[in-house]
Sequence to fold (266 residues):
Amino acid sequence: MSSLSVLFSPATDYAVKVEDLSITYRTTFERKPTLRSALKRFGRGERAIKEVQAIKNVSFDVRNGTSMGIIGANGAGKSTLMRAMAGILPPTTGSIEVWGRASTLLALGVGFNNALSGRENIILGGLASGLSRKEVEARADLIADWTELGDFIDMPMRTYSSGMSARVGFSVAVHMEPDILMIDEALSTGDAHFREKANAKMAELRDSARAMFLVSHGLGSIKEMCNEAMWLDKGTLMMRGEPEEVVEAYMEFLKVKRSATTTEDI
Ligand SMILES: Nc1ncnc2c1ncn2[C@@H]1O[C@H](COP(=O)(O)OP(=O)(O)OP(=O)(O)O)[C@@H](O)[C@H]1O
Ligand SMILES: [Mg+2]
Fold:
């Protein structure tokens, strides 16, 4: 049994409730054991299925007013969890309840059409987020100006650097006035000026949005921006609590793992 419900009743203090959530990706691919046999049997590889359990029996709830930092190693399941909460990815088992509208521009840059300009993508992004044409038109200039991309805003996005694309994605996400703001690695490609501007904007939104989720490898940002944190490892929720404590436990875990591999190496 699995479900995702988006609820609009204000009669609760919860923003998100996740119960016993598991998400499994199934990918079919052609198994090619060696290069030589791959060449020999070109195009006739054996079909195989790989299953990745990206989220394993995770439960938590988040109340209004929370800015939740999510940390963990590459492949831990952070983006998967965010996609599921945003309704992009259905749960395999378990349930997710979300009260209100979430901003869905997660992995920034994904979802953009690179043949279109930044400005055109802003309009599409706004419509995709559920705003009316009128609302989008009223906001498009503000969103475009916020990126500080100058003339580039009317150039095709394929001509953008990754940081420039991130600026467009971030600007769209934060100007949608979501009930729940979800930001996945928005800050990783930004330069110092953009980071500062993004931090200020997030601080402002933290107070107006009902809840915020921030995925980042920047542990300093997590401590600075969030009032709670969760640590995921290989799909399992390892810890939830004060950002300081969770970050410290995660760093301790990394240290132990590093010394274990060093010992193995010797
Ligand atoms: N579309 C997909 N199809 C198949 N497997 C996927 C897909 N997306 C992610 N995965 C797998 O799910 C697991 C969790 O990936 P996820 O992207 O959620 O990690 P993450 O914590 O966001 O990592 P990162 O810090 O690198 O962004 C990984 O093992 C990854 O290989
Ligand atoms: Mg990710």
